[in-house]
Amino acid sequence: MIIGKVVGSLFSTRKSEKLVGNKFMIVEPVDGMKADGERLVAIDIIGAGIGEYVLVAEGSAARIGCDMKDAPVDAAIVGIIDQGQNWSK
User: Fold this and answer.
1) Which residue spans within the chain are E strands per DSSP?
2) Is the pTM for the entire model greater than 0.90?
3) What's the DSSP call for residue 67?
4) Whole-angstrom Cα distance, residue 63 to residue 17?
């Protein structure tokens, strides 16, 4: 899992049927949490908002974490961080 900050949202009217009804957010990993530091698109099953720090599962853990094992998902927001130490600026 990585820690990231939700920096935006996106909408897609045409997508895989297995993704219909889901919300997508743009997440920017906090420094040191992801090697390339690039933003990613994550499915949001818990209702995170822009500006919140979140836990993101990637790969097969993302599909399992959002109970969508047959969907084309490689990143999922699985938690909203209330409090933490030594990871944000």
Assistant:
1) 2-10, 23-29, 40-44, 53-58, 75-80
2) no
3) T
4) 15
Residue indicated by tokens 């094992």? 69
Determine the Cα–Cα distance for residues 2 and 32; give it in Å rounded to an integer: 9
Topology classification of domain 2-6+15-35+44-80? OB fold (Dihydrolipoamide Acetyltransferase, E2P) (2.40.50)
- Which tokens is 52 given? 């919140």
Q: What is the dihedral of CA 52, 53, 55, 58, to 10 degrees?
A: 80
| pLDDT digit string, tens, across residues 1-36 | 889 999 999 988 887 787 787 889 999 998 776 667
Domain boundaries, the chain: 2-6+15-35+44-80
